[in-house]
Amino acid sequence: MTENDVTVDEPVDSQRRRPLVPMIAFGVAVVMAGLFIVLLNADPDGGPSGDRSRLLGQPAPESIGTLDDGRSFDLSRRKGSWVMLNFFQSDCRPCIIEHPALVEFVDQQEALGADGVEFYSVVVSDTRDDVEAFFAERGGEWPIVMEHERIDVGFGVAQFPETWIIDPAGIVVGHFPGAVTTERLAVTMQELRERFR
């Protein structure tokens, strides 16, 4: 075998490999196009939930407690109604900022009668006096779960405020970590009601 033979063989071998390069490039392009489509269709807020929580689509955790007026609260007995739980603390700055939006939203829901959401605030690590002062100063006429058997742990609450939506079948269908607006809650509830029908 001469030196010339080696030179002649290399281009032939390279020509055999050339079809592989376009195939690899095509495969990479297909994968990139697929990722682009997924990202294009993704909701930046993660849908009405605000994120992809492990509880979404699952039965709501057992939630038992006592309301501010002394009545008992058992989330499992709320089946048949839309329920919204808002976890908060009276000294939480985002909770204070969010509160007027909640007052407006609850007023809107009450105007819907039986079709409205049952709204509850769930107090975490706070005193009755501080919570009562909070509502006396800022308004808000809805039930407050003052004492409970760690409802926050069942829902995996990691920050305040944090809002969860449970459908009439008792399934968790929405989650908003952080403060929300009246419009965001109202639009989300409209979308969820349409899907539930």
CATH superfamily of the largest domain: Glutaredoxin
Radius of gyration: 27 Å
The protein's oligomeric status is: single chain
Report the major sheet: 7 strands, mixed
How far apart are the first and last residues' alpha carbons, in Å?
Answer: 80 Å
Count of DSSP helices? 6
Q: Pairing-aware structural class of the strands and helices?
A: alpha/beta
Q: Can you describe this structure?
A:
- This protein has two domains: 39 residues; 150 residues, Glutaredoxin.
- Helix 3 packs across helix 6.
- The relative contact order is 0.18.
- It starts with a helix and ends with a helix.
- It has six helices and seven strands; from the N terminus they run H-H-E-E-E-H-E-H-E-H-E-E-H.
- A hairpin with a 4-residue loop joins strand 1 and strand 2.
Characteristics:
single chain, 197 residues, alpha/beta, Glutaredoxin, 2 domains, seven-stranded mixed beta sheet, 6 helices, disordered N terminus
What is the element layout, followed by pairings?
Blueprint: H1 3-17, H2 20-41, E1 64-67, E2 72-74, E3 83-88, H3 93-111, E4 118-123, H4 128-138, E5 144-148, H5 151-154, E6 162-166, E7 172-177, H6 182-196
Parallel strand pairs: 3-4, 4-5
Antiparallel strand pairs: 1-2, 1-5, 3-6, 6-7
Helix pairs in contact: 3-6
